[in-house]
Design goal:
Largest sheet: 2 strands, antiparallel
Number of strands: 8
Low-confidence stretches: 1-13, 59-160, 183-190, 544-549, 558-573
Oligomer: single chain
Helix content: 40-55%
Radius of gyration: 26 Å
Strand content: under 5%
Mean pLDDT: 74
């Protein structure tokens, strides 16, 4: 079983005095000078006003199966031999953590301080009762040298730790604090998040692969919140079990619900964005799987609100996948758009996602060109870029008319968490949103707009003999305004009330605006971005860093002055 080190960090041996560090920043390593490794900006780069960036090492997993099995047992999930009736019961078996100690005292096994959780029992009528209805259990003995589970002291609440209870705790760490209040029932599903406290599909999973995926999500959140590496080990085990069961299920997918299959892929992609388990960038492989699965099934009408939520969540993730891989996605086709237009609900957010499906196909002109010198193809390409930019701007204008977005002074009173995490503040004002849903989709729209407008600028600065219907200076001003608006969303997103989702929203665009500030020579803002990146590593809330770090392949940044004067020509790939 692969695992990580006990503190989930890569350990390095101490360095001798005067020796150059192998862990220094990229600038110091390039110049072969000693780096003091002060993050986010080392002293060498600080003195010379250089951009200080650091090599992001991928997670390294070590097989410690034997060592882990000596320390504790993880008992979770229904066995393969359990009846379908039990798997479909309201509550599945609780997840149990049973520490094992081999110490003996005077020849007798020493009892551990582990938790004893009641298991499901059968009532006198023969029906399966939930774990909450269980009142007693017998300790299980696994051999003479194995410890037995012991009872919780009377002063501690002895309620059973079920999947539902653990998932609720995980969601409260993952979701913004106002989300549970906003979701009142099925009518609130248009908020486009399936990870909510009212979604029975995640609390009562019918398929074994879905139960394992949700367990892994729950355990990863718990390991981050509690700082318990054993939960991280357990998450990896359940993740592996999920993949094994899921591969078998896909071979006979007609036996399972389409919604459960798609939900499993989406849960795994979110899980990988929280803490990469399988490999660096593993979120993309699950999103690609969802794209392929939907594409193979073909466009099918959405019959319920819940199906609409899953479909649009998959579309939104596929837009990011297409952007980072610079590949068109199928959902921009007319047949797929008709599904959105005839869905059980249509709202402001679904319209933005529909516009976003065009963007991956607009980041490269190759599909428009019959040859490298096809100027008419370039002209059509530029016009489509501009038209999609205008659609995003119209969406933003409608958003501001319908939703409240306020600007507050960026001070310690209004944004205390931000000032605790960030060493230097460069913002005079910051955005304040009524709820996280507004912040997420507004940030998404600005990110889309930035990509489109900078691509337009790269064409305008390429020297191609094209007709442009937009003034370069006004386009530059719009780009600067977009980056400024994105920066102002950071203070509220870092607040504890925004949960882990808020940190993911910052990660959506942080590297992008860092590259922009570097291209403009605004090194004070570059250092600020470094502070924000460091803040995303907060141990008690998890790591929301480098899982989306491939912006260098996507963004086309001409170096232009504040007034739009060309300083460097950027060729079109």
């Amino acid at each position: 079983m692969p695992s990580v080190s006990s503190d989930w960090k890569v350990e390095h041996p101490p360095r001798r005095s005067g020796q150059r560090s192998a862990n220094g920043c990229l600038q110091c390593r390039k110049r072969k000078v000693k780096c003091d490794e002060q993050k986010p900006t080392c002293s060498y780069c600080e003195r010379r006003k250089l951009s200080c960036s650091w090599f992001q090492r991928p997670w390294k997993f070590v097989d410690v199966s034997d060592k882990v099995s000596e320390e504790y047992d993880v008992l979770s999930g229904p066995s393969e031999h359990q009846s379908q009736q039990q798997r479909n019961s309201i509550e599945l078996n609780p997840i149990e953590y049973v520490p094992k100690r081999q110490h003996r005292t005077q020849g007798r096994p020493q009892e551990t301080g582990g938790l004893e959780t009641p298991s499901s029992s059968t009532s006198s009528s023969g029906s399966n009762s939930s774990p909450q209805d269980s009142t007693s259990t017998k300790p299980q003995h696994h051999g003479a040298n194995s410890s037995q589970k012991t009872r919780i002291p009377p002063s501690v609440d002895a309620g059973p730790t079920t999947r539902s209870q653990m998932l609720i705790v995980a969601l409260y760490h993952y979701l913004p604090t106002n989300e549970p209040k906003e979701h009142r029932g099925e009518h609130e599903h248009p908020r486009l998040t399936f990870l909510n406290l009212f979604n029975g599909a995640i609390f009562r999973p019918r398929a074994p692969f879905l139960a394992a995926a949700i367990d892994s999500f729950t355990l990863v959140q718990a390991s981050l919140a509690l700082g318990d590496v054993r939960l991280g080990f357990a998450a990896i085990r359940r993740y592996s079990a999920c993949l094994s069961k899921f591969n078998a299920a896909l071979a006979e997918s007609n036996l399972y619900s389409h919604d459960d299959i798609l939900l499993c892929m989406l849960v795994l992609s979110i899980l990988e964005s929280i803490r990469p388990i399988s490999q660096f960038g593993g979120w993309a492989s699950h999103v690609r799987g969802a794209i392929k699965y939907l594409e193979d099934r073909g466009p099918r009408p959405l019959k319920t609100r819940y199906q609409t939520v899953l479909f649009h969540h998959a579309k939104q993730a596929s837009v990011l996948w297409g952007i980072f891989h610079q590949e068109p996605i199928p959902f921009s086709g007319k047949d797929w758009l008709r599904i959105s237009e005839s869905a059980p609900f249509i709202n402001h957010e679904t319209r933005l996602i529909d516009i976003g499906t065009r963007i991956p196909g607009l980041l490269s002109p190759s599909s428009y060109l019959s040859s490298p010198t096809d100027m008419s193809g370039y002209q059509t390409y530029f016009q489509d870029l501009l038209a999609t930019s205008h659609d995003i701007q119209k969406w933003l204008a409608d958003f501001h008319r319908q939703r409240d977005v306020l600007l507050h002074a960026c001070d310690e009173i209004n944004f205390p968490t931000y000032f605790r995490l960030v060493k230097r503040n460069v913002l005079s004002t910051a955005s304040s949103f009524r709820d996280f849903n507004n912040a997420w989709y507004l940030s998404t729209a600005w990110t889309y707009l930035y990509l489109l407008q900078t691509t337009c600028l790269s064409i305008m600065h390429s020297g191609l003999p094209l007709h442009f219907d937009v003034d370069a200076a006004s386009l530059v001003a719009s780009v600067e305004s977009t980056v400024d608006n994105l920066s102002k969303t950071v203070p509220q997103a870092l607040s504890a009330q925004s949960g882990f989702s808020g940190r993911l929203s910052v990660n959506l665009f942080l590297r992008m605006i860092t590259l922009h500030y570097e291209a403009q020579g605004r090194y004070e803002m570059v250092r600020w971005c470094g502070d924000i990146e460091s803040a995303l590593y907060t141990p008690d809330q998890g790591h929301a860093g480098a899982w989306m770090a491939n912006w260098e392949r996507v963004i086309k940044l001409p170096r232009i002055s504040q007034f739009g004067e060309r300083e460097q020509t950027v060729s079109i790939r």
